[in-house]
Design a protein that fits this description.
The complex is a heterodimer of chains A (304) and B (212). Chain A is of the alpha+beta class and 304 residues long. Chain A folds into two domains: 138 residues, no CATH class; 109 residues, Beta Barrel (Lipocalin), CATH 2.40.128. Helices cover 22% and strands 26% of the residues of chain A. In chain A, the strands form two sheets. Chain A has an eight-stranded antiparallel β-barrel. In chain A, helix 4 packs antiparallel against helix 6. With 212 residues, chain B is mainly alpha-helical. Chain B has one domain. Classes of the chains: A alpha+beta (304), B mainly alpha (212). Chains A and B meet through helix 1 and helix 6 of A and helix 1, helix 7, helix 8 and helix 9 of B.
Chain lengths: 304, 212
């Protein structure tokens, strides 16, 4: 019996920490799958957009048409409901008729059309545009379109006043979107933290390192030696930078907060970019995901 | 009274051992049904397409856990003295697994281990010593040299337990210092079994001292 105790002490000495059971593979692997899943913290699933992407190029007929990009600031905020206080938004003005305007907005992984009557005030156009109303995050955009400054300014009021953020404001500048695989992440991303909740709440923070800047997965082929020793957060941002270059609007808050706040060139214009990915990007995404899994799942748990 | 406390302690340790064996079983079950792009193999795609690696990997994954079964029987004096048949059957199971299945396949996997030459050397040495100690232990019992048999089986089983201690160390090291994923792996490739072997030697010398 004595020897038994000694022999088994081996295990105890070596395993003084408690060990977690290996997780289910699917759960983790699917978590970031194609970066198109809904964010877990949202109360309800946002239905997948099925409408066709409206034309991105501004028509020659009306120079006001096109993308307007900037921050969608929360004004009426319920901090108990885990709000996303500010997001980057793209408002697309798709057509302007005699007395009506059509457009859509892309923000936080949500692509919603809107339309409404217009009134002119000098050169400026004032609009009160409604979203269809069949999504719980729908509301009313009220804004002024100013040709002199190429700018859209206004507010958005949610139909549902009980949302975490029921009123927002914005001041957006016109910008053309074009996919450029050479766009690099700015340096301050490497000092950033990844978080899912508004920083006001305590949250498990993940910090990024300068590794995140070392490769551009849109224009160079990654080898396993390049990334096998990197932390999960760096790999995740490197992969999601591919999606960001294509103008993907992130539902995943961790990624959204990083790209919205730190990456100037980033503009959300689409909620599904899967068909736009190049072969090189697909290859790198596959490799990055494998090592994200490795660095995440096999890192701080008992398992392999 | 002292005897009772000892009994409680040893059954407690046995329960903890059973728990870790259960965790190892869960790790094994990841590979059932047969799938070459799952779990650890997700980052082994360069090698898993090779026949010899695939054979070695799955032999190791499916059989190595049986070596841990010996831990439930071979160290119990009751089984050794009252039920030597069980001791012998379990011993042969352990030896077949180590010498013919999990040991050699472990060396082949070790040759292609993640993390470069240092972890490859660590895992290969582990495999070679595991087979060596087990083989010598077999020779010793054939010569009826029970104390030498015991010593080498302690060493052998200490290395078998590295399956558990390697993963436990990884957990502890990451919780304390958050080293990079592959650096962590390079550390535990050595720490996982060298620590066990040192402890086994301490136990062996302790027993010898007490007997003499």
């Amino acid at each position: 019996m004595n020897k038994w105790i000694l022999m088994i002490s081996l295990i105890i000495f070596q395993a003084c920490g408690q060990a977690g059971a290996p997780n289910d593979k699917k759960a983790e692997a699917v978590a970031e799958e194609e970066a198109v899943k809904s964010e877990a913290s949202q109360v309800e699933e946002i239905p997948e957009e099925v409408e066709a992407e409206p034309e991105a190029t501004p028509s020659e007929a009306n120079p006001l048409l096109g993308y307007y990009v900037g921050t969608f600031y929360g004004v009426d905020i319920d901090f108990d409901k885990n709000p996303a206080v500010s997001n980057k938004i793209t408002i697309s003005i798709d057509s302007i008729g005699q007395d009506e305007l059509f457009g859509h907005s892309v923000v936080a992984g949500n692509n919603r059309p809107f339309s409404g009557p217009i009134s002119k005030e000098g050169d400026n156009i004032k609009v009160e545009a409604r979203e269809p109303g069949d999504n719980r995050y729908d509301g009313v955009f009220t804004f002024t379109l100013s040709p002199a400054t190429n700018n859209v300014t206004g507010t958005w009021q949610a139909n549902n006043k009980k949302l975490a953020v029921s009123k927002r404001e914005y001041n957006l500048d016109k910008r053309v979107f074009s996919y450029d695989p050479s766009l690099a992440l700015p340096e301050d991303v490497s000092w950033s933290q990844l978080y899912e909740k508004h920083p006001k709440f305590e949250d498990r923070e993940e910090s990024l390192t300068e590794d995140v800047l070392s490769f551009n997965a849109s224009n160079e082929e990654l080898k396993k030696e390049d990334i096998e020793n990197m932390y999960k957060g760096d790999l995740e941002v490197m992969r999601n930078a591919i999606y960001a270059r294509h103008g993907y609007s992130f539902k995943n808050r961790k990624m959204r907060f990083i790209f919205d706040s730190s990456v100037d060139w980033y503009m959300p214009v689409s909620t599904d970019i899967r068909d736009d990915l190049t072969d090189l990007e697909r290859k790198n995404i596959d490799l990055l995901k494998r090592y994200e899994e490795h660095a995440g799942r096999y890192y701080d748990v008992f398992g392999r | 009274m002292i005897l009772k406390a000892k009994t409680v302690l040893s059954y407690g340790l046995l329960a903890i051992y059973a728990y870790f064996c259960y965790l190892m079983l869960l790790i094994t079950l990841q590979y059932i049904p047969f799938d070459t792009d799952v779990a650890f193999l997700r980052i082994k795609q360069d090698y898993i397409s090779r026949d010899y690696y695939r054979w070695a990997f799955f032999i190791h994954a499916y059989t190595a856990i049986f070596a841990l079964v010996a831990g439930f029987t071979q160290f119990s004096p009751l089984i050794r003295n009252q039920l030597p048949r069980i001791h012998r059957i379990s011993g042969w199971l352990y030896l077949i697994v180590v010498l013919l299945l999990a040991g050699p396949s472990g060396i082949i996997i070790g040759i292609h281990a993640n993390g470069g030459w240092s972890s490859q050397l660590g895992f290969c040495l582990l495999g070679i010593l595991w087979i060596y100690f087990s083989w010598i232990a077999l020779q010793k019992i054939k010569q009826r040299n029970i104390s030498a048999h015991r010593d080498f089986m302690y060493r052998s089983f200490a290395l078998a337990l590295s399956a558990i201690s390697l993963r436990a160390w990884k957990y502890v090291i990451v919780a304390l210092w958050q080293p990079r994923p592959m650096d962590t792996y390079r550390i535990v490739a050595w720490l996982g079994w060298v620590g066990n072997l040192i402890l086994a030697e301490i136990i062996i010398s302790y027993i010898k001292k007490r007997q003499s």
